[in-house]
Amino acid sequence: MPRGSNTRQPARSGRQEGVPHNLPSSSLRPKSRASSDQKTSDRKTKVAAVVSKAAKGYNPLAPGRIAEILKRLDELYPDVTCALTHTSAWELLVATILSAQSTDVNVNRVTPELFRKYPTVEAFAALTPEQLEPDVRSTGFFRNKSKSVVGAAKKIVADFGGQVPLEMEDLLTLPGVARKTANVVLGSWFKKAEGVVVDTHVHRISRRLELTTNNDPQKIEQDLMRIIPREKWILFSHQIIWHGRKLCIARKPKCVDCPLENLCHAADKTWSTVEMHKNAKA
């Protein structure tokens, strides 16, 4: 490859190209030690003032920054929906329970045959967890998941007339259902924005974008609900999940291709045009 053909990349320090960093030694030779020391002191004072001003002026939760993040997500993923294959609230509930510590792709391989074999909530309610285990083994943690699915089916049949409840407090009474699963069902099937889905992608990327400093999913959800407009709660979750799969990959984010790059100061960026913040990490 000819010399000079490689595209230059910004340094991780955020230092811009074209700025002279190594001046000729003659230009740096002071006329006197006193004047040199004074110039060095003045330069340090000016740099410190600029850094202090930038630090004080940066607010990761500023409404303008949040609005710009949402705008770019809308441009990237305008119509994304839940990636779990389903045709009813019950199928979505089952698929979401099975997706814990698994991938949507893997769950989508399992559920078509599962729902063909047990087509109704009542069919699941008639099972024992042990009978269901072979059908969901490949999703991992199959014993706990079998207990949750069968337990949820039995409670839905006994307490809710065979229909998946559409209220948060009722969904949370079902075995294996916490706020994440309840939010998936309410948002994706019933189109009710009762909260923000916090899965592993939303957890990780929200911290990288400095939208939260918390690690607990419920606290992260509360933080996001405070800064994201309610009408965006459902779509925002889907967008961040897709972004985590397509670009903001956990082990090696594709920062050079990311439209959010200059809004992101994550410590583990692989390419950056802005200063990186040591506390902005998953």
Task: Characterise this structure.
By secondary structure, this protein is mainly α. Helices cover 52% and strands 0% of the residues. Helix 4 runs antiparallel to helix 10 and helix 11 packs across helix 13. The two termini are 38 Å apart.
Helix vs. strand class: mainly alpha
The number of strands is 0
Distance from first to last alpha carbon: 38 Å
Shape: elongated
Report the CATH C-level class of the largest domain: Mainly Alpha
Provide a concise account of the structure shown.
With 282 residues, the protein is an all-alpha fold. The protein contains 13 helices and no strands.
Features:
282 residues; Endonuclease Iii, domain 2; Endonuclease III, domain 1; 13 helices
Helices, strands, pairings?
Blueprint: H1 25-28, H2 33-57, H3 63-76, H4 89-98, H5 104-117, H6 121-125, H7 129-136, H8 142-159, H9 168-171, H10 179-188, H11 200-208, H12 217-227, H13 233-246
